[in-house]
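Hey, quick one: can you model this chain's 3D structure?
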Amino acid sequence: MGIRRPEYNDRHPGVVSVPTIRIPRELALQLACLATVGLPGFAGSEGNGPHRAFGVSRATTTVEGLLVETVLAKKLRMGEALESGLVSGECFVHCVLRGDVEDPTGRDGSVEPTFMVALVAQLHSGLEAFPVSTSSYSALSWAEPEEFRTAWRTRDGQRLFPDASPLEVCIRGLCVQAAVRVLERVNADVA
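Sure thing. Here's the predicted structure for all 191 residues.
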């Protein structure tokens, strides 16, 4: 998770986020089908799409591998670590959420209808290659699942980033909601 860097993100500056990218609607709907086979509707649907590799040769021949590598390379500056094979793992489409994303800055009052397709990326190697900040994120960190879920439930982004300004950090986004949903499903599967 990270805090979006304000100078490069006009719409969501300073918000707690998990790394995301915008993709074409057609691709989002295609991926939604992987998570929703046999499940009613899109809103809140969960499933496990096929497991795909990332960080290995030919990983970008699958949509899931390409998307995970794109997020890691673009948002977390990990292109070289992926290319060299330092970072690798497997990924799959987990859930799809649909929601109205408001402008948290309150500047224009706009609402953007959004599909959020959550891919789970399970790391096999390369944890040490993850940065602590990038152009997209002023701070990046790992959190214990329960701490992350508690921060979401209490809307307390400072719980995850205690040194962040309380006037800037908010934790309400659809991407965080999707991550919490993934963690709740994993927790239920373990129990």
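One thing worth noting: The longest helix spans residues 174-190.
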